[in-house]
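Appendix B. Chain record.
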Amino acid sequence: MGEAVIEVRGLRKRYGELEAVRGVDLRIERGEVFALLGPNGAGKTTTVEILEGHRDRSAGDVSVLGYDPGRHEVALKERTGVVLQQTGLEPYLTVAETVDMFRGYYPRPLPLDEILEVVGLKEQRDQRVRRLSGGQQRRLDVAVGLAGDPELLFLDEPTTGFDPTARRGAWAMIRNLRELGKTVLLTTHYLDEAQALADRVAIMVRGEIVAEDTPAGLVAADADAVIRFRAPEGAAVPENLGFGEREDGLMEARTTDLTRDLHTLTSWALDEGVVLEDLTVSRLSLEDVFLRLTDEDEDESEEAS
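Structure tokens predicted for this chain:
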């Protein structure tokens, strides 16, 4: 095991009768990109805010770079960077002026040119903030978070609202952070983003971590495969095949015995003269695993009520 940057044991946070975080354990090692995932209300934002020192905990032990964030020590703040989902920067400053202003708040800031190189804003250094595109403004948010040369960067929903090209650019920026040796705690609603970027992933549901591993490990732990196809209009797929119709019109089923179930499906199609359009067979993605875990929790909650 490497050096721990974040260690959490038995973290709890209660708001009156509501326990938003229920005994969370976490260990994040130096140089990792670690993604914390969960549906709305899972407790991930509360957890991150406790780690940042912006919210007090009800119980548990928390160490961030060897400090207790609940003590709000300047030495810890100098070694961490926070990139919130929404920020407000002075629109009439240039990119370079903005980053330089924040660099002035730290005793050992990262060089300006290095920051602009990492976030991909070298060509926009003299451009005013108000003239930046949405993706460029988000890059500037990260540049501000890097101003003090932090060892640990909290990165909240970095690509919300981005088009595909801007998202890919942001992914390259986050990979640059890893190459610099930064530790990144990433929260995102995009499961493909976590799968592409994170070294490890934790999934929170109802205040608890229900799964933690590498993205590949989480997917490999689920033996299911997925069969999808589009049935011709009017074709009645037998219920015993276990297929359900998705919102996009594709029929879908999960299977632990791919050979048998695919044979059953194709035999039915041949017997009925049905063409299986858009037929695909794939292993689960991280998104599939996430949806299964959160769906299971919803089912258990309904049974308990």
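Further analysis of this model is presented in Appendix C.
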